[in-house]
Design brief:
This protein has about 600 residues and is of the alpha/beta class. It is built from 15 helices and 13 strands. Helices cover about 55% and strands about 15% of the residues.
Amino acid sequence: MKLNYIYSNKTFKEIKFNSGLNLIVAEVTDKMNLNIDSHNLGKSTLISIIDFMLLKTLDKNHIFKRHADKFKDHIFFLQIEYIEGQYITIRRSVNKSSKVSFQFNEIPYENLLEHKDWTESNLAFDKAKLFLNNLLEFEVLKDWNYRKSLTYFLRSQDDYRDVFQLAKFSSGKDVDWKPFIFDMLNFNGNILKEKYELALTKEKQKELIKILKNQSSVDSNESDKLVGAIEMMKDEITEVTKKIDDFSFYKRERHLNKNLIENIEENISKFNSQEYDLTYEKQEIEKSLKRNSLVDFDVIKDLYNEIGIHFESQIEKSYEELTEFNRQITIERTKYLKLRLNALNDQIVETRKQITFFDSQRNDALSSLKDKDSFNKFKTYQKELALKEGEIVRFQQQLKNLDKIQNIRNEIKITENEIDEKIEEIRKLISGSENVTYQNIRKHFRNIIKYILNTPAILYLTQNSLGNVEYHAEIQKENELEITSESKGYSYKKLLCVAYDLAILIEYSTSKFYNFVYHDGIFEGLDNRKKINFVLLARVLTEKYNLQYIFTAIQDDLPDLKSVGKENISESEICLRLNDKDASGTLLGFAF
C-alpha cells in the first residue's frame, strides 16, 4: 500500500506523491524576522491529516477538535494504491467524520471533488474501517487491524522517544503493544499475550483471597480452630437441649453466674478496645484521603521557578516528571487507602455487632438470674439455643471461606505453573535461531545504521524479571557488546526509529503490507555527512524494494550532495514546498 494523492475542497496544498522518494521542504524566507517560525508551516500537520484519512478516531487533542471552527467545512480526499496499479479514494469530512465514502479509481491522481456516485457512500465509521481492512488484506500481522501498525509508518516527533513504544502506547499497558511487536518480528505474539492474561488472572485470584479473608475475620491457618469451636458449640447445644428437656435449671444458673463474670464482660471489654483502634485508624485514613498530593507542590514549584532562571528547560521537564510521578503515586496510594478504608468499615460493623451481641447476652443472663419463673428461664434457654445454632452457621461459613481460600491458592499455583511454562516458551523463542524473518530484520537494521553512521547497531530481545519481553535497539561499539551512549541522544534515537521502520518494510516488501513510511524532521540536529548518507541510502532502498519514502526537512537543513559527486535532491523528488512568506505558504493556507 502506498499514498498517491491528497487534496481538499478548501484551502489546502494538494500533494501528488511519488512512488519512491518524497521530500516535503519548508523554506525560511526572512531569517531576520523573529516573529515567524518555519516549524509551524504544516509538515507535521500533514501526518495528522493522513492519519485522519486512514480512519483514525478523533480525540480531543486532534487539530480538527482543537480548532473545530476553522475545519468544520473541510472535506479531505486521499487516493491510495492498495495493490500495485489499483487505486481507491477515501472521502471524509471533518464535520461528519463518522461517515466515510470510497471510490475505486482506474487511473492515479484522479480528482473526485465533484464526484457524486461513490462505490461505498457514507459508511458508518466501524464499517468503513472493516471495509478498508478487508480491501488491504495484509499478509503481515493478520491477527491485527491495519491501524495497529500504521503509526510506525507515520512517525511524528512524539514517536521518536522510543523505537518500539509509540506515543499512543505510552499511557497504556504493555499488553497493548508488546505482543503486537512480537508478532511484527514474526514471533508468536499470542504466547506473550496469554502470559499477560495469566498474570492478570493471578492478580484477580489474590484480590479474591483478600476479600474472603476480610469476610472470614480469621486467619487462614485457623481452620482447625474453627472446627474445634463448632464441635464445642454443638456440645453446648446438646447440653442446653437436655436441660430444656428435663427443666433442670440449677446447674444452668451456676453456669450463667460464671459465664457472666468471666466471659461476657471480658468479651465486651475486648471488642470495645478493638472498636476504638479501628475507628482511630479509619479517621486517619479519611484525613489522608482529603490530602490530594504527597508533596507540597506550591513550595516545590517556587523552588523550581527560582532555579529555572538558569536551567529553564531542564527544570521544566523535571518538574513535569515529578508532577507525573507524584500523580501516579497518589493514584496508587489512594487506591490502597480506599481498599483499606472499606475493610475497616466492614470490621467496625462486625465489631459493633459483637459488642451488641455480648451486651444482649449480659442483659439476658442478668435477667435469667433475677427471674425465678421457670417458664421465663425456659424461654431464655430456647433463645440461647437459637443463638448458638446461629453461631455454628457463622463458623461454618467462615470455614467454607477458608476452604475457598485454599482452593484459590491451589488455583494460583496452577496459574503460576502456566506462567512459568509461558516464560519458558518465550525464552526458547528468543534464544533460538529458527526465526529467519527476525534475523533478516536485525540484519537490515544493522546495515542501515552502519551505512548512515558508519557504526554498528544491534536489535535484540531480553526477558525482564517477570519473564516479559523487553525490546532493545542500540548503537554498538565496533566488535564489542558494550552499548554506547550515542543511541540515547535524540538525533541518533530518531535514526534508530528510522532504521527499525525501514527494516520492517524491507523484510515485508514482497508481501501485501505497507510500502510507505513518513518520517518527520529527520535532518534536524544531524551532521551534514550523515544527511548525505541518509539521502543516498533512501534512494537505493526505495528503488530496490519498491518503497515509498516521505520525509520532511527545512530548506537550510538539506545536504549538499554535489560535494560528494552525487545529484542534489531534485524537484521531482520534492512533493511539497512550504514557506513562511505569509499564510498562503502554509499547508492549509491559514494559521491556527
